């Protein structure tokens, strides 16, 4: 006769089994991959390992394609601006944890081939529109040919992931880095973008400053985005793309009559190199006709495929529109020109270089100087936000100084397109150097709005006071994991920094988008009250 403990053990084992059986299986993840403009998807049950990921790529695109792939990058933001490389199980686990924390069961990956295998078509991904049909067969297909006429199961039809139709039946593209973005719950906008009811800022100390004709800018942004959409996967859209570009061009030329805009130099000489960023080199530029000095950013466009060339054309046109942005806290664009080898962006010359360089040369800033810069950054942001633009790349490297020690916001509105343009030659450009400053809602791919700039401002203030943003010791993928999953960013301020400064930073770094203040709210914060800013020439 079995003794009592044996019986108890058997009952326990049976119970355990029953509990395990009744537990729902872990939900599967949908993995979408884009390679050379083709998007394919598969479903994998958890846990997912890095080798599962590679197997999945092989099943979807073939063995040969797998061996030609240099980089697998996870796409976090809805406008593609944040893509980070996944190279091992640790990276993948962080990505999975971010997606779990967001309550999402989808992951988007962008695959880049080794240079020698480069295909003629490389386009940017925009696969956050999840209305597309996905088949779950990715695990069994063995396809060695990536240029199939009839796409294999798992392929997502291009037209299903490119465009959305708004209530006015206009195409609205969600790829709008740096451009006008309507937000629910924080302002009221028409969905068409052409009639805009903005926040009433008549009481603002800045409202008397130059204000753009928001209506025409919103329209311009929408049409430029439409042009961008055409540069994507769908070849049939090339005609509409050309039309969008044409309409954008006509608005460019029309705008130069309407507004007093700086002229693009036609007769100029290249001066010394001022610096180098992720997208190209910056030189001094002497305008022979006017005798003035400008800065010129040269971005290599040699050997780009035709679709990326369209992005270049649109960016060139957009910059010629951005020339109208005129504020003492914004680095003025003087236009853009294209040669066979370069896209050349002319800008106001800022003799003091970037605040990043200032920190690298002289160390962390004092609280008093940080306060002055913060106020000036906010003045620039209020102007941009009132005119329905989001900067999207606020960090010390994009804040430039004049000779008097005052600052301006630079690189406005170009980052997303530059990422798309340089992706072919420098796959990591731009996105890695931005991860630590990225707002949680961008990583979630949920809301795209002005308050992302406020989060980045909080990180920038930490950078000014400590020489690096929150989570500065972490690799980009680990940093965004912490931004997405932790309640509060981790940073340590010098002991002499006031509690008011700390409170101001914490306010900027409010995780909840809706609770986070606007630029206008912050400019009235008591941290910025002291009018005695040190300056050799106060504004
Ligand atoms: N308008 C300007 N006037 C004077 N110097 C400039 C100007 N724009 C850029 N520079 C110099 O060129 C450097 C590189 O600028 P760039 O905008 O290419 O890259 P970045 O902003 O430093 O980095 P990233 O490309 O990651 O945004 C700057 O650090 C600065 O020294």
Automatic annotation (TrEMBL):
<dbReference type="InterPro" id="IPR053793">
    <property type="entry name" value="PB1-like"/>
</dbReference>
<feature type="compositionally biased region" description="Low complexity">
    <location>
        <begin position="214"/>
        <end position="240"/>
    </location>
</feature>
<dbReference type="InterPro" id="IPR000719">
    <property type="entry name" value="Prot_kinase_dom"/>
</dbReference>
<dbReference type="InterPro" id="IPR017441">
    <property type="entry name" value="Protein_kinase_ATP_BS"/>
</dbReference>
<dbReference type="InterPro" id="IPR000270">
    <property type="entry name" value="PB1_dom"/>
</dbReference>
<keyword id="KW-0808">Transferase</keyword>
<dbReference type="InterPro" id="IPR011009">
    <property type="entry name" value="Kinase-like_dom_sf"/>
</dbReference>
<feature type="compositionally biased region" description="Polar residues">
    <location>
        <begin position="132"/>
        <end position="141"/>
    </location>
</feature>
<protein>
    <recommendedName>
        <fullName>Protein kinase domain-containing protein</fullName>
    </recommendedName>
</protein>
<keyword id="KW-0418">Kinase</keyword>
<feature type="binding site">
    <location>
        <position position="297"/>
    </location>
    <ligand>
        <name>ATP</name>
    </ligand>
</feature>
<keyword id="KW-0723">Serine/threonine-protein kinase</keyword>
<dbReference type="GO" id="GO:0004674">
    <property type="term" value="F:protein serine/threonine kinase activity"/>
</dbReference>
<feature type="domain" description="Protein kinase">
    <location>
        <begin position="268"/>
        <end position="528"/>
    </location>
</feature>
<feature type="domain" description="PB1">
    <location>
        <begin position="28"/>
        <end position="112"/>
    </location>
</feature>
<dbReference type="GO" id="GO:0005524">
    <property type="term" value="F:ATP binding"/>
</dbReference>
<feature type="region of interest" description="Disordered">
    <location>
        <begin position="126"/>
        <end position="240"/>
    </location>
</feature>
<dbReference type="Pfam" id="PF00069">
    <property type="entry name" value="Pkinase"/>
</dbReference>
<keyword id="KW-0547">Nucleotide-binding</keyword>
<dbReference type="Pfam" id="PF00564">
    <property type="entry name" value="PB1"/>
</dbReference>
<keyword id="KW-0067">ATP-binding</keyword>
<dbReference type="GO" id="GO:0035556">
    <property type="term" value="P:intracellular signal transduction"/>
</dbReference>
<feature type="compositionally biased region" description="Low complexity">
    <location>
        <begin position="190"/>
        <end position="201"/>
    </location>
</feature>
